[in-house]
Amino acid sequence: MVGIVPAFLEMDRTFPEKCAIECDGRGTTYAELAHRVRATARELGPEPGPVGVLTDRSEDTVVALLGILAAGGVYVPVDPAFPAARQRALLEAAGCTRVLGPTGLRSAPDALPDVMQAAAPDPARDEPHRASPDQAVGDPAVGDPEAPAYTLFTSGSTGRPKPVLTPRRAIAASVASLRDLFGLTPADRVLQFASLNWDTCLEEILPALTTGATLVFHEEAYTGSIPRLLRAVAATRVTLLDLPTAFWHELVRHLAESDEQLPDRVRTVVIGGEAVSPARLAEWRARDTGRVRLINTYGCTETTLITHAVDLHGPEAPGPGAWWGEHEGVPVGTPLPHVTDAVGPDGELLVSGPALALGYRDLPEVTAERFVTRQGPEGPVRWFRTGDRVSRRPDGHLVHEGRLDAEIKVRGIRVDPGEIEAHLTAHPEVGVAVVVGTRVEDRTTVTAYVVPRRADADDAALARQVLRDLRASVPGHLVPHRVTVVPGLVHTAGGKIDRLGTHRRHSPAAAPSAPAEHRGGLTEQDNR
Amino acid sequence: MSPDDMVDIFRRVLETDGVTADTDFFESGGDSLMGTRVLSAVARARGVELSFDDLLVAPTPALLADRVASVSR
C-alpha cells in the first residue's frame, strides 16, 4: 500500500505543471504545492509529533496537512472559530505542543501553545526542484504504517471530546478505495466543501491530490447560501461534490422549489452522515439527474472516512435501486474492497480491516470497549463496534436501523447527548438536564430539558440565557435547537433518568399516543 | 421586502406561528441548515442572495428585511 505522501509526490513527478489547488480563482501547481509541503516538513523537523493546525479555507491547510505527514508527524485540525477553551482542550487532548496557523490568529495566546507561521512560499529562495537536499523529507515511504497520521475528535459522554488516533495504513487503504469508488481522473475538479475539522474533508482532499485532479476552494461555497454555492460550482466547473446528507436534503428542496438544475459539469454527488430522506430522494430522481452518480456512503471516524457505499441513482445505480426508499430505508451500501464487516447478534455493525483506528488517545478503557478482538478462522481479528444497528438485505446492502446507544447526529456530526448534558449542567443556573434528538422527516432537532437550580427562576429568561451562554462556550453542533425549562425530569422504575420519558411528558408535539419510535417519529437513535 | 413578508418566511421555515418581527431565528429553533431555507426564500422573492453571516448579524425578520432593503437599494 502506497502511503499518502509518496502518492502525492508521484503526482508532482507526473503532472508538475498541472493545477493541484484552485483557491478563489488562483491556481497552485503540483510542483508549487510539493515545494511548499517540503518546506513545511523541513521547518517542522523530523518526527514532530502531534501538531495542531488552525484551519482555514485555503491551500495553507492542505500544505500543513501534507507537510506534517511528510515530516512524520500527526495532523490535528482545530477550528479557530471554536471558543478558546475548546481549542485548548482539543490541543491538550491530542498532545500538541506546537500549532501551525497564519499569523493574526493569535487571539488567545494564553489558550494556545506557541504559534508558528505556516511556511509561506519563498520564490527568492529556490525554484521548485527535484534534487534538493530536502528531497529525503517525505519522499521515501515515511515511517511506520502503524504510526498515527492524524487525530480527530468524537463526542464523549463526559463533555470531553475523545481523540481518535488514525494510523497511516488506514488512510492509505481508505483513500485508495475512494479513488476507485469516485472513479477520479486527473480531469476531475473536486469542490472542498466539508468543514476542515471533521474527516469528510479528507475524502475531498486526499483522493483528488493523489490522482492529479484539482481541488477547488471558493469563498462563495461557504456562505450558507445554496444559490451562491450553485453559481460557484458552475463557475469553477466542479465535477464532484461531497455533501453532508442533511445539506443535500436542503439542496434538493431548493432545486425543487426554484426549478433550478444542478450545474451540468457535475457528474458525481457523494452524500453521507445520516439517513437519506425517501421524499428528498424521490424529488432528486424526478429532476434531470439521470446523468449524475448519487453515491450514498457510510463510515465512522474510527474506521477512517468511508467504509460502505452504494450508487442510489444515476448511470451506475444497480437496477433494483429504483424502488429504494419507497417501502423501506435507503441502503448505506456494501463494504468497500478494503473493508470486512459483520452484523452482531444484536444487529450491531462490526467493521474490520486496515482502516481501523489505533484507538482513543490515552483512553484505554473506552478503546477496549469499542475495539474488540475476536477469534477468527485464521487467528484473532480486531473489530470496531460501530454502535449502529443495521440489517442486511438479500442483495447484500446494509440498511441503517438506528443506534444501540443514545448517540445522535447533528447536521452529520456524531453527538453523544451526554456531552451536551455535561455542558448544560456546568451552567451555574442549571440543576439537571437531559438532551433528546428527534427526527421529523429529513431533519434532526435537538431539545434540552433543564431543571433550574433555583425555584424562583423565570423559565423563559433562563432558557434564553442558557442558550446564549452555550452558544458562546461550545461549538455549534453542541448547541440544542431548543431549551425547555421543566420542573423535573422523568425517571425509570430503576431510578435512572429517562430521556424519552422526559421528552414525552414535556414536549407538546410528542403526545404519548402519537406514532413514535420509527422513521418520521420520535427517535433517540441516529440514522446515518 | 416588508417585515411582514419576512415574518411569513420565518414562520414557514421555523414551522411555527409564534413569530413576530422581533423573533430571534436562533432562539426559536433555527440552525444553519434551516438558515439556507430563509436565504433561498429571500433569493426567490427578491433576487437578493444574502449569506448566513447576514442572518447571524440580523437574526430577526425586522432586521433581515432592513438588510435586504439596504442591499437592493
What does this protein structure show overall?
The complex is a heterodimer of chains A (528) and B (73). Chain A has helices at 4-14, 30-44, 59-71, 84-94, 168-182, 200-209, 226-235, 245-258, 278-286, 364-370, 417-425, 459-473, 499-506; strands at residues 19-23, 26-29, 50-54, 74-78, 98-100, 115-116, 148-154, 162-167, 189-191, 214-217, 240-244, 268-272, 293-298, 308-313, 334-335, 340-343, 348-352, 359-360, 371-376, 379-392, 398-403, 408-410, 413-415, 430-440, 443-452, 482-485. With 528 residues, chain A is an alpha/beta fold. In chain A, the strands form seven sheets. Chain A has a five-stranded mixed sheet with strand order 11-12-13-14-15. In chain A, strands 16, 17, 19, 20 and 21 form a five-stranded antiparallel sheet that branches. Chain A is globular, with a radius of gyration of 23 Å. The two termini of chain A are 29 Å apart. Mean pLDDT of chain A is 86; it is low at 104-111, 113-141 and 511-528. Chain B is mostly helical. Helices cover 62% and strands 0% of the residues of chain B. In chain B, helix 1 crosses helix 2 and helix 1 crosses helix 4. Chain B is globular. Chain A binds chain B through residues 223-228, 246-247, 249-250, 253-254, 257-258, 411, 443, 445, 464, 467-468, 471, 476, 481-482, and chain B through 26-27, 29-37, 39-40, 43-44, 49-53, 55. Chain B: This is Carrier domain-containing protein. Chain B: One of its GO terms (molecular function) is phosphopantetheine binding. Chain B: It comes from Streptomyces humidus.
Secondary-structure topology with pairs:
The complex is a heterodimer of chains A (528) and B (73).
Chain A: H1 4-14, E1 19-23, E2 26-29, H2 30-44, E3 50-54, H3 59-71, E4 74-78, H4 84-94, E5 98-100, E6 115-116, E7 148-154, E8 162-167, H5 168-182, E9 189-191, H6 200-209, E10 214-217, H7 226-235, E11 240-244, H8 245-258, E12 268-272, H9 278-286, E13 293-298, E14 308-313, E15 334-335, E16 340-343, E17 348-352, E18 359-360, H10 364-370, E19 371-376, E20 379-392, E21 398-403, E22 408-410, E23 413-415, H11 417-425, E24 430-440, E25 443-452, H12 459-473, E26 482-485, H13 499-506
Helix pairs in contact in A: 1-2, 2-3, 5-6, 8-9
Chain B: H1 3-14, H2 32-46, H3 52-57, H4 61-72
Helix pairs in contact in B: 1-2, 1-4
